[in-house]
Design goal:
The complex is a heterodimer of chains A (123) and B (336).
Chain A (H helix, E strand, L loop, with lengths): L6 E8 L3 E7 L6 E2 L3 E8 L2 E2 L5 E5 L2 E3 L1 H6 L4 E2 L4 E7 L8 E10 L8 E10 L1
Antiparallel strand pairs in A: 1-2, 2-9, 3-8, 4-5, 4-10, 6-7, 6-9, 10-11
Chain B lengths: L5 E5 L4 H5 L5 H10 L4 E5 H4 L9 H13 L3 E6 L14 H17 L4 E4 L5 H13 L3 E6 L8 H13 L4 E5 L10 H9 L4 H13 L3 H11 L3 H12 L18 E5 L13 H10 L5 E6 L2 H4 L7 H14 L13
Parallel strand pairs in B: 1-2, 1-8, 2-3, 3-4, 4-5, 5-6, 7-8
Helix pairs in contact in B: 5-6, 6-7, 9-10, 9-11, 10-11
The chains are: A mainly beta (123), B alpha/beta (336).
């Protein structure tokens, strides 16, 4: 569901600490950030630690621990969030393959809601 | 005989365009009204940022302004209970009831009369929240969604609460996906694109149409393939069953609303999988007089390679309902 819209390449850029990408929640409603069980980003096939990924929704930034405890603020339906990834070493300019796995904890589903996608992204 | 079934559209149907911000909330309401439907249903957490917090006064004023402008009525709000919202903590009944009450206040603020209760809600929680729902005159409807049907053990437990309390504020909301006579083509084709064996898929579809019990099909496929994706096709037969629409008859007075699920509306105004003519005939004969709300859900199965046109799919579904005699009083015919 919505896999191909998860990664928003137009919002990708290099940053001082690594890089950023835009991301949409692959789900048909908004959820509290605490229900986002996993946000896993990969760069050219290398899976990056989830603790190095922060999320910003409508101006509010959460690291992994803050996100897990945020039961009030929400990642809304179709909202393009910013994922800020800390990555040592200078990212070379140009095209890279970004992978994104988002795992949601949805109360009425008997199994985890895991969606994955990969896109070529220009930095 | 006059027909009293009314037509609504769940704005959930336009989720693809809404997600991609090709349609605004007002666009969705306008598209629903353009079909001739008179009722609006929403998944609050989809359509209204911050839900279930009560929206601002400005939003509420705008909402009712849209209802007037497009001559439609708020009918139902779909709620969820996120029991495991906090990692490692499962809600107590008290926490679940507190969350549920927020949805009741949300529905009330936007003029909805019915709440679709998510299927994992326990009968105990509903019983605890019922007095609050009654005080606010909001009807609660447990969604009878495949793979459950109205005679499933889980639904019988809910039925027991309806009977014992004698309340007018708790009933069933059947989802038409429970009458899947042919497996949805859009869903099977997506699975084939994802690697399922086309021959196995064909076999599963044939067995399903013949009415073979899904467990037998699952067993047979387990002998043909050890690939997960092939098993998923077989399990589709279990997850989207067909039950005889006559199963609704003994419960007809407890049915407060209906989800008109559709995954693929054809050009001839029929749904590929669901024999709407048969189900609607049963509802009409036995006097169901609530709404059927179109709930188009095919987008998720085709969005990988096709352009989704939710507006056209909803239009066809509404035309079908109209052809079957639902909501025809909108066209100058007054029920006697």
């Amino acid at each position: 569901m919505y896999e191909k819209y998860m990664i928003v390449p137009e919002r990708a850029k290099k940053t001082e600490k690594g890089f950023e990408i835009g991301a949409r929640l692959p789900y048909y409603r908004g959820v509290s950030l605490s229900m986002v069980e996993e946000i896993e980003v990969s760069l050219d096939g290398e899976t990056l630690p989830q603790s190095d990924v922060a999320i910003t929704v409508h101006g509010n930034t959460y690291n992994l621990e803050q996100r897990e405890n945020e039961t009030d603020d929400r990642w809304e339906m179709g909202e393009v969030a910013t994922l800020s990834v800390a990555k040592a070493g200078d990212l070379s300019a140009g095209e890279h393959t970004i992978g994104l796995k988002i795992n949601l904890r949805i109360g009425y589903m008997p199994f985890p809601s895991i969606r994955v996608f990969e896109k070529k992204v220009n930095f | 005989m006059t027909n009293q079934i009314k037509r609504a559209v769940s704005l959930y149907s336009y989720q693809e365009e809404y997600f991609l911000k090709k349609m605004s909330l007002e666009d969705c309401i306008a598209a629903a009204a353009a079909t001739g439907a008179t009722g609006i249903e929403i998944v609050g957490e989809q359509s209204v940022p911050g839900c279930p917090k009560i929206p601002s006064e400005a939003f509420i004023e705008q909402w009712f302004g849209w209802m007037d402008k497009y001559k439609v009525t708020p009918v139902a709000h779909d709620m969820f209970l996120d029991y495991n919202k906090k990692k490692g903590h499962y809600w107590s009944d008290e926490e679940a009831v507190a969350s549920f009450k927020k949805d009741i206040l949300f529905a009330k603020a936007l003029g909805f009369k019915i709440i679709r209760v998510i299927v994992n809600t326990t009968p105990q929680i509903i019983e605890k929240v019922l007095p609050f729902a009654e005080d606010h005159d909001i009807k609660l409807g447990i969604e009878v969604h495949a793979p459950w049907n109205i005679n499933s053990a889980w639904m019988l437990r809910h039925w027991e609460v309806m009977e014992r309390t004698g309340t007018k504020h708790f009933g069933f909301i059947p989802d038409m996906g429970g009458f899947t006579q042919r497996l949805p083509r859009v869903q099977v084709e997506r699975m084939i694109r994802n690697g399922a064996d086309p021959e196995i898929a064909k076999y599963v579809c044939e067995q399903h149409e013949k009415g073979v019990m899904a467990e037998y099909t699952v067993y047979e496929v387990s002998k043909m393939s050890n690939r997960r994706i092939d098993m998923a096709v077989a399990e589709l037969s279990r997850h989207t069953p067909f039950v005889n629409p006559l199963s609704l008859v003994p419960h007809i007075d407890r049915i407060i609303h209906i989800h008109g699920k559709c995954l693929e509306m054809l050009e001839d105004y029929t749904e590929y999988s669901i024999p709407y003519n048969e189900v609607v005939a049963v509802l009409q004969k036995h006097g169901y007089n609530g709404y059927i709300a179109t709930e188009y859900e095919g987008n998720r199965h085709i969005q990988d390679i096709y352009e989704v046109d939710s507006v056209e799919q909803v239009r066809r579904h509404q035309e079908m309902l109209k052809n079957l005699g639902c909501g025809i009083s909108d066209f100058g015919f007054e029920p006697m």
